[in-house]
Amino acid sequence: MKVYGATISPMVRKVLMALEIKGLDYQVEFVIPFNTPEGFEKISPLKKIPALVDGDVSLADSTVICEYLEDRYPETPLYPSDPVLKAKARWFEEYADTVLMKVTAEGLYFERVVKKLMGMETDEEKVQKNLKKNMPKTLDYMESVSPAEGFLVGDSLMMADIAIGSSFINAGYAGFEPDSSKYPNFAAYMQRIKAHPAFQVRMKEDAKFINKE
Amino acid sequence: MKVYGATISPMVRKVLMALEIKGLDYQVEFVIPFNTPEGFEKISPLKKIPALVDGDVSLADSTVICEYLEDRYPETPLYPSDPVLKAKARWFEEYADTVLMKVTAEGLYFERVVKKLMGMETDEEKVQKNLKKNMPKTLDYMESVSPAEGFLVGDSLMMADIAIGSSFINAGYAGFEPDSSKYPNFAAYMQRIKAHPAFQVRMKEDAKFINKE
């Protein structure tokens, strides 16, 4: 299997985590959204990352890809089998892909890290506005749903945890960590899931990438 | 089951179509996003529509709800069972929920219909810009994927068709129809799926709502 994208992207990381935890072989082809290779729209119609090629199957969108990996390679499940828990899991993934994408990625990581790597100027005013206006309600929600122990929807790390964790890992790269005195459950939950071996592998790779540039 | 939302919303229509085709009983509780009832965030954390209550299960997000209905009430399937086709189906639904939401809803239906119903002024400049800048590439893509006969991913109307169809039905309420000389496959496909009895029921209900105001 081939994953197209930048390994440090929170959306690409979702796919890499799923592949690693399921023990599937894969290669990464480095693609960034601003400069996609000729013909990339045949794999990813909107030229977005991640995209996956598995034999003669081409797929785009991190959630579509992760659900596909689950359906086609069900060993080591990353979604609960119970329909109600599975729906809860999908809600958290959707929340991460939409709300957290805006708050932790577009309004924070993208401004402070991606723009810097690309030689562009951070719009720190935008970042501060985001941290004041959007971040507190996001953290309030995360605190309200974070379990005191274990994971969001199952007995092990699943896609819901991967999606949420992945977003806040990139917020961390932009210098933001949840305040453990205000958000004790969420801060502890984040520490717990970041300790997972698959996240550790990814974060070590990310460190090389960030330090190289 | 109780569906919270406005029946004319393309996202709410996805859920109503799923319930109707699966033959499940439901009631609709009228909710609009601008003025949600007290405590609605307990059902829909972002106060968005649609939301669903099924016994003690509360869910938000049209895709999360439709996947839940499929998992919990599998009779009359609305997603293919093959993992590759199911992934394709999910891609089309994601495309509808993101790209079409912007092009056919936010930049068109919302401006010309919703704003009018609410006594606000249509930003026709925004609509024209959207129709010139975004609509052509959207229609090019839809034409490239529309089947000459039948449906997007199966032998019957499924969620992929429902999501795409639902978006363009609302574009129709805003006076936009795809040009059948430029987009013959897509225009014919839209006519074909709009003729489905479940879409016909919904569109008759919509007509009452639009004409009432």
Task: State the main characteristics.
homodimer, 213 residues, alpha+beta, Glutaredoxin, Glutathione S-transferase Yfyf (Class Pi), Chain A, domain 2, 2 domains, 8 helices, 57% helix, globular
Task: Quickly describe the structure.
2 copies of one chain form a homodimer. Chain A has 8 helices and 4 strands, in the order βαβββααααααα.
Could you explain how this protein is built, in words?
The structure is a homodimer of 213-residue chains. Chain A has 213 residues and is an alpha+beta fold. Chain A has 2 domains: 2-72, Glutaredoxin (3-Layer(aba) Sandwich), CATH 3.40.30; 83-212, Glutathione S-transferase Yfyf (Class Pi), Chain A, domain 2 (Up-down Bundle). The first copy, chain A, contains 8 helices and 4 strands. Chain A has helices at residues 10-21, 62-72, 83-117, 124-133, 135-145, 159-173, 184-194, 197-212; strands at residues 2-5, 27-30, 51-54, 57-60. The first copy, chain A, has a 4-stranded mixed sheet with strand order 2-1-3-4, with helices on one face. In chain A, helix 5 crosses helix 7. Chain A is globular and about 50 Å long. The mean pLDDT of chain A is 96. At the A-B interface, strand 4, helix 2 and helix 3 of A face strand 4, helix 2 and helix 3 of B.
The largest β sheet of chain A comes out as: 4 strands, mixed
With strands numbered from the N-terminus, the spatial order across the biggest sheet of chain A is 2-1-3-4
Compute the number of helices of chain A: 8
Average pLDDT taken over every residue of chain A = 96
CATH C-level class of the largest domain in chain A: Mainly Alpha
